[in-house]
Structures are given as structure tokens and as C-alpha cells.
Amino acid sequence: METDTMSKIAFIGLGNMGGPMAANLIKAGHQLRVFDLVPAALDAAAAAGAHAASSAHDTLADAEIVISMLPASRHVEALYLGEAGILAQIPAAALVIDCSTIAPASARKLAAEAQARGLAMLDAPVSGGTAGAAAGSLTFIVGGAAQVLERARPVLQAMGKNIFHVGDNGAGQVAKLCNNMALGVIMAATGEALALGVAQGLDPAVLSQMMAVSTGRSWATEVCNPWPGVLPNAPASRGYSGGFGNDLMLKDLGLVAESAVQAGVSIPLGELARNLYAMNSQAGNGALDFSSVIKLVAKV
């Protein structure tokens, strides 16, 4: 469904999350110039109606909004501020929205650099996973000025159902990291609960259904169940492919640890979860969905 105001959008980063997000913007009628280092991702976006650019710089022609969705702080800083950084080339008065999950300090640094060049910037990391990205039902967790968010709102609404303004630049990243710490802990605990039940003769599907309507209810039981076959559309049911990578969760929990030190807050469960995802990565599962952490305690 088209929105009332169409925008010319530069979209950089077409991975498991960025690709579906860009597709929903195209469906809403926006004009997209896109770039990704993976040719297949570019081809998929072009097939959906985007203009495939030859470089990140090539996406910027006449761009009113620039959106990035990249794996980590270093990638985002390199994109905007590196030797070939695009920040200096973004058209005047354009709005910059970074949807990556990065360090809050990096988000604040980027916003300050953007402001110095007359550009408005938001950090708008997302929650909802690949299913939410495909369905256009993501939650956006936004840091930045309220009036800038209002400029961005029509575009964000084409990709998500929930938009939370949590504070100034960097606050979006803080809130996202809090969410992901809880998610990482809950996923690991859900996997252990299922492993314990199955080892004693319980059906994982029935156990999951019971938990989903009881106090153990969570996204891990209802959407991204870690036991293969319980939910046909969950990564676990396709060999833990796609979804949110274990190493990305490990990266986020590393950012959580840094944030906790800076804030002077103890996070013992967060640290335990970080160790579990590190162990899963060392076991060769880093590229699998983070629900594969169950492999540490169950033969699945």
C-alpha cells in the first residue's frame, strides 16, 4: 500500500534484515537506490523494483533519506566516516537513519558528525527478527530529536508497526541492547528447559505449547522456538539457517558488557549468556541462528 508522500531513498545493507526492509519500502511506493557487497542481494532488490547502485556513493544521487542496515559499529563508521565515507557526500538537508545495532558511543559520534554537516540523523535499531522484517511488522527503537523522528515516521511505518522514541541520539542503541540482553538470556533458558523436558520423555511441541500460555511464555517459545519441528517457520526447523546469527548475538552481548561497565551496573546473567553464545560460536555454530545455542545442551 502506497504512502501519501513518496521519498527517494538510498538504502545500504541488504542482508537478512535489510533486504526485506527495502522490499517493503518499494511496496509502499518509495524510490530506492540500493547497495550491498553481495551481488545476489543486489539482484534480489533489483528484481523487487530497486535501482541497484554500483557503490554506496552511487546510492546518494538526489537522496532525501539515507538508510543503513549493517552488522556492526566498525562497518557503520567505515560507511559514513571512513576514507571513502559517504557522510560528506550526502545531499544537504537529507535525513540519515541507521538501523544497525551498534555501540551507543558510535551512534552519538555519527550523529554529531552528521549535525556538523547540516544533516539530521537517527539511530533506529529494530526488533522483530527476519519474520518481522518480511512482514513489515518491526519495532523501531529510535534515538534522536523528536522533530526528526516525525520526518522519518512515514518511512519507518512502511517497515514496522511499532515506533518507540526512547531519547536522544544513542538512546535507541541503549534500549536495543537492553532488549537483546534479555532475548539472549531467555533463548538460552528456553533451550535448556526444552532439553530438560525432552530428556524426560516430554514432547517438545506440547511442552512449548504449554509454556506459550503459561508464565514461561516468550518470543522464544512462540516465534523462534529453538527445537526443530516445533514451529515450521522458525530457523530451527530449517537447520538453524537465516534468522539472527549467533555471532551477531555475541557481538551485541559484547556491546552490552561494555555498556554495563560504563554504567556501573552488574549483569551476571548477561555475562553468562555471553559466554554461552561464545561457546556456541567456538563449536562452529557462529553463522547459524542464535537459537542454535540449544546445541550446547541437546542433540538437535
From the 3D coordinates, which CATH architecture of the largest domain would you assign?
3-Layer(aba) Sandwich
Would you count the extended β strands for me?
9
How do the strands of the widest beta sheet line up side by side? 3-2-1-4-5-6
In whole angstroms, the N-to-C terminal distance is 41 Å
SSE string: EHEHEEHEHEEHEHEHHHHH
Q: What would CATH call the homologous superfamily of the largest domain? A: NAD(P)-binding Rossmann-like Domain
What is the third-level CATH name, the topology of the largest domain?
Rossmann fold
Q: Which class of the largest domain in CATH terms?
A: Alpha Beta
Helix/strand structural class = alpha/beta
Give me the number of helical elements.
Answer: 11
Q: What is the global morphology?
A: globular
Q: Number of folding domains? A: 2
Q: What average pLDDT do the residues reach?
A: 96
Low-confidence stretches: none
Domain 6-phosphogluconate dehydrogenase NADP-binding: 8-167
Organism: Xanthomonas campestris pv. juglandis (Xanthomonas arboricola pv. juglandis)
Pfam family, one: NAD_binding_2
Family: Belongs to the HIBADH-related family.
